[in-house]
Each structure stands twice: as structure tokens, then as C-alpha cells.
Task: inverse folding
């Protein structure tokens, strides 16, 4: 049972367009949602994150929209650049007594930005 | 930015042998993690570790797996004995000791069990 789902699996957009990556989850206890960016041969790197108390988080060209009722979120990459071509992972975790987060990842969206 | 290092980058071993994957976490981090990613699948949590102890482990963290960080050196994942299904990329991560702290990931160790 996949707790975090991402779509599309692959996305190609033209440079300058807005890329929209989707994520949905099943566990109502999830309250922290980081998005990670991964380039080939490297480990994932945190791009932007949101807590479930918010419905929007912006950081430069990157925006997360969060809908708690529908258990959905999306990552919008505005004015996309060829350097944004990477795999993007949506992850989620639930608050636990131990403190450390146990991240549940989606399968990722491979984003290609065409110049 | 802060870097997590993993050694080796690729390891090939025969089924039944022991393997140790090494992670050099960010220096002031206190939480450590291992994740496993099978080709084409999502990354899955194995274990997290703090103050010399396993805090939480998933069902993927079999009895053949163990973790330790002796005297503040490498954070290691040991598999003994290995099985064919252990073939995967193993990612180490570290973070500050607080809820929703950013987890910094290493580049991964690709383990191939023959």
C-alpha cells in the first residue's frame, strides 16, 4: 500500500513555463511535507517544505499548495529553468514521540525542462 | 552547504557475506537515518538512531541488519548475512535533533548482492 503518491511520473515543460507536480497521501496523521530535489548521482536535497497548519508556502520560484481536506498537495515551479531538470520527491511524516522524522516518500516525478 | 558522505559508492558482494556501509554525517547533527531504494521504487525508511540507540525501525530492517556509531565516527549499517533482496541503493541522512529538521542525504551506496 503506497501511502504517498506522485503524479505525473514524468513531466516535460518549456523553459519559462510553470511546472506543476502533484502529490497525495493517505495517512491523516501526516503533518510535515518536505519536497526533495535529486540530480543523477546525488542524494536528495530539501527544496521546500510545509506543515499541515498552512495551505501555502513560497520560496522564490517554488510554491507548495496544500489541501488538508483532500489530502493533496502540489509543487509549482514558476519560470522553470533547464537547471530545474531533476527528479522531485514528495515526502511526508507524522509527529512522533521520539522526535526524529520517519519520512515516507513517493516514487518521484522526473521533470525535464526544454530550452 | 553541509554534506553527508557515504563510503563506498558501490559495493558488490556474494550472497551470504557481510557488508558494512559507512556514513559520515554532518558534524553537529545528532539524528541519523538509513533509507533503502530499490531501482524504480520509492525510497523507504529503514531506521533512525540517536544517542547510541535505535529510536525507530521499519519492517524492512531485518534481524540481519544492525547500526552503530562507535565513538562519534562513521554511522554504519551492517548486513550479515546478505541476501539477494538486499540489492538496492542505501541512503544515509542526518539532521539536527528536532522535529521537522531538514534531513541531509548522502549520495547513496549502491549495493549489489550476487
Result:
Amino acid at each position: 500500500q503506497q501511502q504517498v503518491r506522485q503524479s505525473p511520473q514524468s513531466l516535460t515543460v518549456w523553459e519559462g513555463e510553470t511546472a506543476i507536480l502533484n502529490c497525495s497521501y493517505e495517512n491523516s496523521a501526516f503533518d510535515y511535507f518536505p519536497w526533495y530535489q535529486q540530480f543523477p548521482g546525488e542524494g536528495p536535497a530539501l527544496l521546500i517544505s510545509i506543515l499541515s497548519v498552512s495551505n501555502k508556502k513560497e520560496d522564490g520560484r517554488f510554491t507548495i499548495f496544500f489541501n488538508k481536506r483532500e489530502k493533496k498537495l502540489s509543487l509549482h515551479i514558476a519560470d522553470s529553468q533547464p537547471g530545474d531538470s531533476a527528479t522531485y520527491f514528495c515526502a511526508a511524516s507524522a509527529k512522533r514521540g521520539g522526535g526524529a522524522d520517519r519520512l515516507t516518500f513517493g516514487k518521484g516525478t522526473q521533470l525535464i525542462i526544454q530550452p | 552547504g553541509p554534506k553527508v558522505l557515504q563510503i563506498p559508492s558501490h559495493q558488490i558482494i556474494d550472497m551470504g557475506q557481510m557488508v558494512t556501509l559507512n556514513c559520515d554525517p554532518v558534524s553537529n547533527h545528532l539524528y541519523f537515518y538509513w533509507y533503502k531504494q530499490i531501482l524504480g521504487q520509492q525510497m523507504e525508511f529503514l531506521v533512525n538512531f540517536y544517542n547510541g540507540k535505535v529510536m525507530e525501525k521499519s519492517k524492512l530492517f531485518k534481524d540481519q541488519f544492525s547500526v552503530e556509531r562507535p565513538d562519534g565516527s562513521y554511522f554504519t549499517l551492517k548486513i550479515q548475512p546478505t541476501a539477494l533482496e538486499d540489492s538496492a541503493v542505501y541512503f544515509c541522512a542526518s539532521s539536527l535533533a528536532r522535529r521537522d529538521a531538514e534531513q541531509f542525504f548522502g549520495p547513496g551506496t549502491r549495493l549489489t548482492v550476487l
Q: What stands out?
A: Chain B touches chain A at residues 4, 6, 31, 33, 35, 40-45, 48, 50, 55-56, 58, 91, 93, 95, 97-108 (CB under 8 Å). The longest strand of chain B covers residues 43-50.
